[in-house]
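User: quick one
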Amino acid sequence: NAGVTQTPKFRVLKTGQSMTLLCAQDMNHEYMYWYRQDPGMGLRLIHYSVGEGTTAKGEVPDGYNVSRLKKQNFLLGLESAAPSQTSVYFCASSYIGQLREQYFGPGTRLTVT
Amino acid sequence: TQLLEQSPQFLSIQEGENLTVYCNSSSVFSSLQWYRQEPGEGPVLLVTVVTGGEVKKLKRLTFQFGDARKDSSLHITAAQPGDTGLYLCAGAPGGNQFYFGTGTSLTVIP
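Assistant: Done. Structure below.
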């Protein structure tokens, strides 16, 4: 089992460009999450999904969109990248339930110039 | 304002020393999780504490959940260089939204 995978691993964008980050999990988890990690800020939740076809906003959703067309995939889109979106992005997944212990991907380092 | 505050933010100690990391909030959590993250990788779950006052041990790591379920601590006995990493607490105070703490960066010097 690959667990949670993310593509790409690194990306450099110019301000105003768009891109999509792909997250895939093979653990049959219902819940999936997108976080960003910035120095001194820990991880902050961008969007999450509690099942195929559903999405919800997290703590810092502005400037991002997501889609969960298939249970195993969760896509994060940036329509018009800004330097403030320079960050490391992590995808995670978990089972339904009270604990919702999360399994993380290896991350995508995005730089917006 | 962070929902979960961790202290200290940075910690550098000699191998063999003991240390404690704190995770505090004004909100009540049904459970709290602790993760460790190494450079260039995603966080990895260490433990989940569920019951107020609960103590869980994982080899040299001891985790405690506060009686009021608003705080937690991680104690490491006889730290080793392999313990080096970023320690994060996390929880959902209600609903599906998860919050992570600010993190404690631990360096254990051989």
